Structure prediction request, 751 residues.
Amino acid sequence: MRTSAPAGVRIDVRGWGWRHASRRAFAVRDIDLVIEPGERVLLLGASGAGKSTLLHGMAGLLGGGDEGEEVGEILLDGQASALARDRVGLVLQDPETQAVLARVGDDVAFGMENLGVPPAEIARSVRPALDAVGLDVPLDRSTSALSGGQKQRLALAGVLAMQPGLLLLDEPTASLDPTGVIEMRDAVTRTLGERTLVIIEHRVSTWWPVVSRVVVLGPDGVLADGDPDEVLSAHRERLDAAGIWLPTPQHDGSKASIAHAGRALLTGTALGVGRGPDPVAVDIDFALHEGRALAVTGPNGAGKSTLALTAAGLIAARGGELTAEPALRGALCAVPRRWRSRDLLTRIGTVFQSPEHQFLTATVRNELELGPRALRLEQGEVARIADQLLERLGLAHLERAHPFSLSGGEKRRLSVATVLATSPSVLVLDEPTFGQDARTWRELVALLREQLAEGRSILAVTHDREVVDSLCDDELVLTRARDVNR
Amino acid sequence: MTLLEPARGDRLVHRINPVAKIAASAAIAAALLLTIDPVSASTALVLELLLVPFAGVPWRSLMLRVSPLLVAAPLTGVTIALYGPVSGEVYGGFLLATISEGSLALALSAVLRVLAIGLPAVLLIATVDSTDLADGLAQTWRLPARFVLGGLAGLRLVGLLADDWRSLVMARRARGVADVGGVLGRVRFFSGVAFALLVLAVRRAGTLSTAMEARGFGGANQRTWAREAHFGTAEWAITAIGVAIAVLATVAAITLGTWNFIGAR
Prediction:
């Protein structure tokens, strides 16, 4: 490293609020908060409470008047945050869009170059920054060849090399498998030093041992603030009601599904799956039955999402067979890949890994009505289905919003709701609980349990242990083919 | 995406500052665009072919990269032979097409030209890594860092577009709106997907620019470059080779009296 770890930054948030230019309501407002140098703060709040907005405000990245309206101010060591960007390191949630350059070494150097660090010093700092986060790859390795967890640690190395006094982490482990989560947390803990840390994470138990203070955001400013365990004991019920994840298990241990499985709907026999000609996973056997849920788990890159797309009849099998049983297919052929698009609607519904790929209309309501309309249901019925789902999933106040303008958690709920709208017999869900707060999580799981009780079947790809425990009857663990062959 | 991947290696030609390679190709192109005659182009082409073994591009990769040229050049030739200006003896014709002595000569010159200008461009660009090119453009040619690095970072996202396209088509199928009949239905369907792809690309670009700004890009600081782009002997040498080919081709054409200024036609 260039110098010893820098001193922490003091954050002063004074009556701060922000309204996105496209929205009438403020995303976040009336925030008064002082964070002392070296504090490690966990920022909590319900889905859509404006946590990310506040963090971007601290990073000075919200932009000017055409992006939105700002009230109050955020000061970093007395200086407006937009002018103190070089003191802040920000790591975002999505591993894909954080690497800027094509080679690992260049990417770490990128931030230092922008700060005007002399080339000789950059050359000395790159390797130590990578070592500090435990990323032992050659400097000319392609950044797109890294795993999700490695990409996040690369992003961390990139900002650490800039020697920021304030480290901001916006759900840095949300897309990672359990191993990646631990590696990332340990890398942060190891390199933190005297820096101030503010982190947003829904699954608090991972970071609970690291943080020294918890700040809870509500609709009207700061809801609770203080020592983690004290906040927890003093406000447990309020936090619970507000949908804040607490470091305790969420499920009640009971399973919703009926004791004995119903008829088989969809079976995979020695199935091989892949997006290109070569399979990423082979010899997969599974069966989906009425009223039962199957969890598909395993590390990033094991082929879980590819299996989901294959089971959903969207890509062809790369070996073996995927068979739709008579109870599912009715008069159609046994290969879902050959069905018409409209035939899928009532048979197999799919929630994609990235919700943005599956939104087709300009408002939340239209999005929900699209499927029922394609089934040519009558208008009254279409509206009834949409109303019900809007209400259940806490999206009613957003019915006229553009789907792309929703928060990450809201987008995910909407994508699940669009699938439920046509009541398919088989639900294929890729990370259905991604980005949810405790309350929306419970509502989502309850809704999925109802689907099981009504005799539908679920295949859920997930890293979320509690989904496996509280919803699923069987678990299919995929391993990376590379790992097996080694 | 083999065509987007540069041919790598550790020979000198792989390490040369890309802007020198661009300068060399540009010198040849400029000389050959001033005149249209068979002598200058064939002189340049012969000299270039002699240099192919030293270009640091494996044969298989070379054939793949040159293949578009091998298709484009004859097509150019046929078009000009049929529709080029008529002069000299007329050999035959059909509707608007007339093959004459003049149009055949012009066609030959054009084919040689496409090859002579295309070959060095393909050869030299084949060994250019986009990151090195950005270093060269920004440091040697002093183009604005915002423009160069923005383009470079954006280029990295191009590979994701193909995946996005597949996902968008799949999502439409899953949502029950992919049963399209007829040509018109297909056109509407794919233009819908194309528009969605555009929206996604713009959104992703926004995310990327946030990630870049978060790392101090576009700030008030004077930017430094971790790797200094040098312009030394090797760079001057490759530029000189390009200029030499250009000069030899022109001199050969003038000596044999075939050089004709393109604007004079």
